[in-house]
Amino acid sequence: MRLTRRRKKAAPRPRRKRSQARQGYVFEATASAPGRRVNWEPLAAFWRKQGGVVLSVLLLAATAWASFTFFGTDGFYVYAATIEGNLAVPDEEIFAASGLDGLSVFWVNPERIAGAVARLPDIRLAEVSCHLPAQVTVRVVERQARVVWQWQDQQFWVDDHGVVLTPRGTLPEAVIVRDTGTAPPRLGGRVDAQAVVAAQQLRDLRPRLGAVTYQPDRGLVLESAGGWAIYLGVGDDMALKLAILDALEKDLRRQGVRPAYIDLRYPERPTYR
Predict the structure, then answer these.
(1) Which residue, 56, 64, 225, 242, shows the most beta carbons closer than 10 Å to its own?
(2) Domain 74-142 is in which class?
């Protein structure tokens, strides 16, 4: 009998799981084997290649959304403002001068807006503040008219600094200064501020004085009861000049002298002719 040795069948080798394809990359699944670690290197390589692109897309989308929210909706655009401190100048005039109408609140430059408002002849100071979503407040300090400045048949208001203002109503207590110059004053421009000071002093010293003449080369000029001209000049020494005038006219009457004019522009040496 022939003995044949039977060969043992080899034990079947464990079958490796097939790889899984994701996003064009093949990742080997080894987690099923106990004690083995997941290989994350392919995923890290993917993120290194594509992560910057994804982040850029997200940032671009966020920027687009913010731009639409802040610049594409009416809620952040200025169509009105709160005006404070004005008595003579209307709100509409101040708002129009500000240039705020239809402006995005993110483009509001408070310093520039305040400068535009302060260029109005009647505004001395302006301050601007803004808050989200579209709240703007404009605070102003107006110039105060002191005298009525008249050139031919045109009348203007003038403040203490000689700034020419727009007439708004009446100034019943103000003296009228009749300008004999060759050119009219300009709104927002200036006239002789020292003449304005002198005119106010004259009105205080002589309350019944309604008007006084202004000559560019002689300053303020009054006409005496006797019919001669009195050159007073300008400045804040009208009380001294009127005191000298009273004494000089009294002396001239005693002498029987009727002058053509009395010049008090330089009170330390008054003259007459």
Answers:
(1) 242
(2) alpha beta
